Amino acid sequence: MSSLTDSKHKWLLPPIRRNMVVVLAICIVGLILCVIASLVLGSRPVTYHELINGLFNQQADSYGASVVQKRISRTIFSLFCGAALGISGALMQAVTRNPIADPSILGVNMGASLFVVSGIAFLNISTAYQYIWFALAGAMITAVFVFGIGSMGRGGATPLKLVLAGAATSAALSSLVIAIMIPRSYVMDQFRFWQVGSVGAGDWSSITTFIPFLVVGILLGTITTSALNALALGDEVATGLGVRTGLLRLLAALAAVLLCGATTALAGPIGFVGLLSTHIIRLILGPDMGYIIPMSAITGAIILTISDVCGRLIGSPGELEVGVVTAFIGAPILIILARKAKVQSL
Fold first, then answer.
1. Choice between 99 and 122, residue whose per-residue pLDDT is larger
2. Is 63 a domain residue?
């Protein structure tokens, strides 16, 4: 009888895997709906016929079809940036064992912004490829600085100390960015969207430049997943399991900086996407980084894309930059998370 029962239920997946399948299906459907909304909605809505022409008829000469073709690159760029920020947030939370870590909260985005703006103002850099390298340098230096400041004193790098160090550093760097931009109108005109973050400038050139950094960041993040699960148990336990914690933190942090630095170079300092996407997935699927990293990528892409659509609708006939929308949503949630978790470590 027991063997019959076992064979009857043998096809059933474990609960966490069933949840994963359900969440993945929901996220894929949500991603498809977000892509359609991004192509159709905006200051100039398009019809179903114009959407089909814009997608499949490259020779279409109607205005609606040309609008769709313009929005295709913007939508893909938004998806890539959202995925990069989602993974970056998940990795930063795992490395720092800080449940409210995020590239924007820890000041990494603003460090990348400062270096790019400085490069434009003083070194006359002008290409997306140059922007990315300057952004990566700024992001890395800022990440090391914030972690160093947050590690000082008794208790080491606690979540609260890291957040305070990141907030103070971000405020200081933001002031420097403004100080560099205000007397130089050409820098301000070129990078005004950096003050809030925008995917409106995303084109095929930006996507091509972004892809190598996205791929490398994803690969580095993926190979650290199992070791990050061990790290969540504590450095002593992880070391006992054979994990080289120093090398692990270096690789995971490098992946996070690559992803958020490249995104910031091309789209500006967009905040809270990594925080929101990772918390949503952790709440549903638990702490396993094997699930959190890929699902945070999908959820981050959804959050950023739908925020971009909302910004276009709210600001019509112009648009409200996506960084404003994500901040409007993310700031209250950050306060709720901080109060609920009392800023405890993972």
1. 122
2. no
- On the 0-12 / 13-18 / 19+ scale of CB atoms within 10 A, 235 is middle
Kindly state the tokens that stand for 193: 């969207």
CATH number at residue 328: 1.10.3470.10
φ and ψ at residue 200, rounded to 5 degrees: -65, -25
How many whole angstroms separate alpha carbon 139 and alpha carbon 182?
22
Average pLDDT over residues 321-327: 83
Q: How far apart are CA 212 and CA 40, in angstroms?
A: 29
Q: What does pTM read for this prediction?
A: 0.84
Q: What is the per-residue pLDDT for 161?
A: 75
What token pair was written down for 77?
A: 């760029």
CA distance 284 to 276: 13
Spatial distance between the Cα atoms of 198 and 308, rounded to a whole number of angstroms:
8
What residue numbers bound the domain in which 186 lies?
72-341
Q: State the alpha helices, DSSP H only, in 152-288.
A: 159-181, 185-190, 204-223, 225-231, 235-240, 245-267, 273-285
Q: What is the pLDDT of residue 204?
A: 86
Q: Which of 49, 47, 53, 45 minimizes the C-alpha distance to 69?
A: 53
CB contact at 8 A, 146 and 165: yes
pLDDT of 328 over the 90 cut: no
Asked if residue 195 is part of any domain, the answer here is yes
